[in-house]
Design goal:
Blueprint: H1 26-42, H2 64-76, H3 82-88, H4 92-103, H5 105-108, H6 117-122, H7 129-146, H8 148-159, H9 164-191, H10 202-220, H11 228-231, E1 235-236, E2 241-242, H12 243-255, H13 264-272
Antiparallel strand pairs: 1-2
Helix pairs in contact: 1-2, 1-4, 7-10, 7-12, 9-10, 10-12
């Protein structure tokens, strides 16, 4: 499993809130790396994962003693002691709070756009955008599928929706991702002279594409070994395709105004054979419509 590549020079003070900034140092990093490895083992995300613990016991195996022992085995020497651990986190709850942010750092610190996304922005209108979107969709799903932090995000979100520490971290992840992609989408629309339908914004478009990408990546986690025919459209590494491409194209076709100035609801009504309301008139309610 490919996970985030720890950067020894990354500024931990941007992630950690439970220790003074001066103590967000290499020793803190050593303890957090050790805890992260234990966390991945407990969640069954480690390459050599042992028997998976029940979900209710996910954090039970991450004790101060185990973290320190694993950190010392990591080659940092005798400086990684329980005393130095306690000097940074007096309570395990504080350490676990920072550990969650640390484990999600690849999603929190920066938005990883697919490598050719900048080509889509700088390309001329004659460049085959559809083929590039299909390629970028595959890159995005493949990257999320391989990212352990994304799997942690999905698991945490599903299992601990009422944990304030986790919810705060997950909201930060979501906000950073949406904001990063929104700025890029806005620039691409402007560069290509495209306009959105009345009533929808670039934030709406970004959120729709963001949720679509997460949904497809989540589906891809189910795997394809037993029933390849059922899940092949989520992501196919052989052909380099993903269902997100069709998903994204459908969203773009719906959100981008081809010149008819219809709202999304009106455009859908025209396609589905509904009667279009007059300008300024509220659409008929399904419960009051005469049959």
């Amino acid at each position: 499993m490919i996970g985030p590549s720890p950067d020894e020079h990354e500024d931990l003070s941007q992630l950690l809130s439970e220790v003074p900034e001066k103590l967000a140092d290499d020793q803190a990093r050593g303890f957090l790396l050790a805890g992260e490895q234990l966390l991945f083992q407990q969640m069954g995300l480690d390459v050599a994962a042992e028997a998976r613990a029940p979900f209710k016991d996910v954090l039970a195996g991450i004790s101060r003693r185990r973290v320190v022992a694993k950190a010392r085995r990591g080659g940092k020497g005798s400086s990684l002691t329980e005393a130095s651990f306690r000097h940074r986190w007096q309570r395990m709850s504080e350490y676990l709070s920072d550990l969650v942010h640390f484990a999600l750092r690849s999603l929190l610190l920066k938005v990883q756009h697919p490598e050719r996304m900048h080509d889509l922005r700088s390309a001329s209108a004659k460049t085959p955008a559809v083929a590039m979107i299909e390629y970028l969709a595959y890159q995005e799903v493949a990257a999320m599928h391989q990212n352990r932090a994304f799997r942690l995000q999905m698991a945490f979100q599903a299992l601990f929706p009422h944990d304030e520490v986790l919810v705060r971290a997950l909201r930060q992840v979501d906000r950073r991702q949406v904001d990063g992609w929104r700025d890029l989408y806005s620039a691409i629309l402007e560069d290509r002279g495209l306009h959105l339908r009345p009533g929808v914004t670039v934030e709406d478009l970004t959120l729709a594409l963001h949720l679509a990408g997460q949904a497809v990546a989540f589906r891809a986690v189910l795997g394809q070994a037993e029933s390849r025919d059922k899940y092949v459209k989520a992501i196919d590494h052989v052909t380099g395709t993903t269902f997100l491409a069709e998903f994204a194209l459908a969203i773009l076709v719906g959100f981008i105004d081809p010149g008819d100035r219809r709202t999304l609801r009106q455009a859908a009504g025209a396609i589905l054979g509904d009667e279009l309301p007059a300008d300024g008139e509220a659409p008929p309610c399904p419960h009051t419509r005469k049959t």
